[in-house]
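yo, Phospho-2-dehydro-3-deoxyheptonate aldolase is done. seq:
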Amino acid sequence: MNRPIDNQHVIEIKPLPSPRDVKTRLPISDEVSELVFQTRQAIRNILHGRDMDRLIVIVGPCSIHDPDAAYEYADRLKPVADAVRDKLLIVMRTYFEKPRTTVGWKGLINDPHLDGTCDIAQGIQLARTILLNINGKGLPCATELLDPVTPQYIADLLSWTAIGARTTESQIHREMASGLSMPVGFKNGTEGSLQVAINAMITSRSPHHFVGVNADGITSIIKTTGNPDHHIVLRGGGGRTNYSVEDIARAEAAVASEGLARGVMVDCSHDNSGKNHQRQVEVAGEVLKQFQQGRRSIMGLMLESHLQGGRQSWDPNKALTYGMSITDSCLGWSDTEALLYGMAESLTTRPV
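structure:
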C-alpha cells in the first residue's frame, strides 16, 4: 500500500513563465543596457578606488507597492541626480522583495495586487516593467535580491544589489551573489555582527556550483567564477548603531584583506536611525563628515525615501495614502532633495 507522503501541506503547484519568455515580452533596449553597463562600471570605479571623490547614494522607497508613485519619485529624483552627478552617483532603490521577521506583505513580486492573492507571475512582469521604465528615464536601479530565482528575470536591469541582514548568512545567497554581474553589498547581521558579512564577501568572491534555473526555467547546475565586486553595508543591529568613527574604522579594518579601496557603505535607516526616518539626515551628516575628514574607505550611503514622509500600515481592505511607504518609514521628498543637494555642496568644499 502506497501512502501519500509528498506535498502534504501543499495546496497548489503552478508553473511560472520562463525568464526567457518574460524577457522576450519585455525586452531591454540598447539605451537601458548601456546605462546599466556604465553605472555598474562607475560603481566598480568607486569601490576599487579608481574614483575617490564621489559617493554612491542608494535612495528611494523602502519598497515599491505603487508603480505610479515610483514613477513620480523617479521623475523628481532624475534632475537632482543630474545636478549632483560630479559628486554623487545616485541609484534609485527599487525594492520588490521584502524579507519578513515573521509574517506580512512580502513585496510587489510576491503580492502585486496587495490583496493576498500572491499573483507572482504578474508580480515578476510588473517588477520588470517598472525597472524598464525607470531605467528608461535615465535613472539606474538597485534592489535587494531575496529569492535565488528572481535574478534570472530582472538582474539585467540592476546596477547594484544588496543581500539583506536576514540572508547575508545564507549559503544559498552567497552562492547566488558569486554569479551576479553587478556589484553586491552585504549587510551586517540583524544583531550587528560584521563577521557574517565578511564571511559572505569571502564566500561570494569564490567559484561555486549550485542548483538554480536557466533562462528556460529548467532546474540546472549553475557554475560561477566568483564576484570580485562586493562590499559591506553597515545598518546597525540589535538596537545599536554602527556608523561612528570607531565603527567605520572597525569595518574598514575588517574588509582590508579583501583588497578594496572603498569597501564600506552606511545604511542610514534601520538600527542606525533607531527606525526614525528623520534621523537619517543626522546619520548621513555624520558619515559625510567622516568622509570629509579623510575616511576614504567610505564609498556611499543608503537612504529610505518616498514622496511623503513616514509609513502607513497595509491592510487589503483599506485605501492607502499615495506616495507613502507601507514597510519602513521613509524621508519625505522635500527633506530628501535638500539632503542630496546639501551633501553635494559639502563635497564641493571638502578639504583635500
